[in-house]
Amino acid sequence: NAGVTQTPKFQVLKTGQSMTLQCAQDMNHEYMSWYRQDPGMGLRLIHYSVGAGITDQGEVPNGYNVSRSTTEDFPLRLLSAAPSQTSVYFCASSYGDRLEEQYFGPGTRLTVT
Amino acid sequence: AQKITQTQPGMFVQEKEAVTLDCTYDTSDQSYGLFWYKQPSSGEMIFLIYQGSYDEQNATEGRYSLNFQKARKSANLVISASQLGDSAMYFCAMREYGNQGGKLIFGQGTELSVKP
């Protein structure tokens, strides 16, 4: 199993550009989440999904869109990048409700200039 | 209000000694879970230990134990016999089961440095 994979690893965007961060898992996990981690801080939940076709907002959803058309993939879209979105983005997945068995991807480091 | 508070931005410990990392939480839910994660300098998030609010025994996983004091709303992580590889950021997190879905709320972290 590859676990949770994220692409790209690094990305630089200009203000106003849009892009999609990719996240995929091959463990047939129902739950998937996107977090952002700002310097010196813990992770904050952006959006999450409890299964294909179902998504919901977390703590800091503004400026981001998600969709979940398959169990495996959970892309995060930045609609119009802003410098405040400079952060490290983590995708995570877990089997059902078992967050104690949540697997994190390696992260995407995004810089918006 | 802060849901998860980690009051120690940085800690030092001598190799082979034990260390306690503090975490206090705030919730009105009766059912919740507490987590500790390790983040080494390479950046990945590594799950360490979990404690459910109804668990009567403190959770243990190898050298990690969680000192759960429900009345004080604290969930401190104890690392016994520290190793150089334990140097990392450590995050406490909470999930309130009254909320739908997988919402984890993280503290700001404690940076642990293990001295040889």
Descriptive keywords:
heterodimer, A: 113 residues, mainly beta, seven-stranded mixed sheet, four-stranded antiparallel sheet, 11 strands, B: 116 residues, six-stranded mixed sheet, 12 strands, 50% strand
Per-chain topology:
The complex is a heterodimer of chains A (113) and B (116).
Chain A (H helix, E strand, L loop, with lengths): L3 E4 L2 E4 L5 E7 L5 E7 L5 E9 L2 E4 L6 E3 L9 E3 L8 E8 L8 E2 L3 E5 L1
Chain B lengths: L3 E2 L4 E5 L4 E3 L2 E2 L6 E8 L6 E7 L7 E2 L2 E6 L4 E6 L8 E9 L8 E2 L3 E6 L1
Parallel strand pairs in B: 2-12
Antiparallel strand pairs in B: 1-4, 3-9, 5-6, 5-10, 7-8, 8-9, 10-11, 10-12
Give the helix tally of chain A: 0
- How would you characterize the largest beta sheet of chain A? 7 strands, mixed
Written as H for each helix and E for each strand, in order along the chain, the element string of chain B is EEEEEEEEEEEE
Provide the helix percentage of chain B. under 10%
- Number-wise, the strands of chain B total 12
Anisotropy-based shape of chain A: globular
Parts with pLDDT < 50 across at least 5 consecutive residues of chain B:
none
Please indicate the percent range of residues of chain A in DSSP E strands (runs of 2 or more): over 45%
Global structural class of chain A: mainly beta
Task: Report on the architecture of this protein.
- The complex is a heterodimer of chains A (113) and B (116).
- Chain A is mostly beta strands and 113 residues long.
- Chain A has strands spanning 4-7, 10-13, 19-25, 31-37, 43-51, 54-57, 64-66, 76-78, 87-94, 103-104, 108-112.
- In chain A, strands 2, 4, 5, 6, 9, 10 and 11 form a seven-stranded mixed beta sheet that branches. In chain A, strands 1-3-8-7 form a four-stranded antiparallel beta sheet, with no helix packed on it.
- Helices cover 0% and strands 50% of the residues of chain B.
- Chain B is built from no helices and twelve strands.
- In chain B, the strands form three sheets. In chain B, strands 2, 5, 6, 10, 11 and 12 form a six-stranded mixed beta sheet that branches.
- Chain B is globular and about 45 Å long.
- The mean pLDDT of chain B is 92.
- The chains are: A mainly beta (113), B mainly beta (116).
- The interface between A and B is medium-sized, with 26 and 22 residues.
